[in-house]
Amino acid sequence: MVQQTDLRQIRRRVYMSYFQDGLWDILLGLALMSWGLVFLFNLGWLPGGLIIVMYSMVFALKRQLTYPRIGYARTTEAQKITMRMGIAGGVLALLGVAVLLLFAVGSRPDWLGEYFIFLFGCLLALVVSIIAYWWKVNRWYGYAMLVVAGVAFHQWLDTSLPLSIVVPGGIVLLSGTAILIRFLRENPRQVEE
Q1: Is 117 in contact with 155 (CB distance < 8 Å)?
Q2: Within a 10 A sphere around the Cβ of 173, how many other Cβ atoms?
Q3: How far apart are CA 192 and CA 183, in angstroms?
Q4: Over the chain, what HEC string results?
Q5: Structure pTM?
Q6: How many CA atoms lie within 13 A of 23 on its CB side?
Q7: Which of 44, 28, 73, 41 is nearest to 175 (CA)?
Q8: CA nearest 23: which of 145, 178, 188, 185?
């Protein structure tokens, strides 16, 4: 008798394996922290440069740390989701450029200037939530809530803007590091015979 396999369950395991090593969490934490450092030290180049370098490093580290331990499988569904994420990221980048143009020209509504940081944080949290939904990685919803909490504290409790972004980024970075350490302990490197 042939056993029926649940494709949804297999897909979920593949998605979870993609995020179970904590490397993407570390990237998100570093990206958030770099945005905070932009506001603290006026380093406009930092987030873009760091994200590009770290994005490349995540794939290299996955080849060195993750795949030798659990293997590698990429479904066509995962490729579609990756493409959708790229499109969503492009749309959000265009939206960000449009908002920056509004600020550059000076013809923006007053409320946009007053709530810009909060709206930016909510937009970032939305992107993190979309990733959590598409890849079915629930802890990323918590990361999104941390981002919203940070910018809300800045908006209404007048906390330091860099601190409002660096602290959530640091929490995400520590979480990703703990996940990576646990992953490495629980999954010894497979030795090929």
Answers
A1: yes
A2: 21
A3: 20
A4: CCCCCCHHHHHHHHHHHHHCCCHHHHHHHHHHHHHHHHHHHCCCCHHHHHHHHHHHHHHHHHHHHHHHHHCCCCCHHHHHHHHHHHHHHHHHHHHHHHHHHHHHHCCCCHHHHHCHHHHHHHHHHHHHHHHHHHHCCCHHHHHHHHHHHHHHHHHHHCCCHHHHHHHHHHHHHHHHHHHHHHHHHHCCCCCCC
A5: 0.77
A6: 19
A7: 28
A8: 178
Cα distance between residue 85 and residue 82, in whole Å: 5
Position 33, amino acid: M
Q: How far apart are CA 176 and CA 27, in angstroms?
A: 8
Round to whole Å and give the CA distance between 107 and 69.
54
For the segment 45-91, what is each residue's pLDDT rounded down to a tens digit?
666 677 778 878 887 888 888 877 777 666 666 566 667 666 766 66
> Which whole-number Å values give the CA distances from 108 to 103, 112, 160, 161, 189, in the listed order?
6, 7, 24, 21, 55
Backbone φ and ψ for 192, nearest 5 degrees, come out as: -80, 135
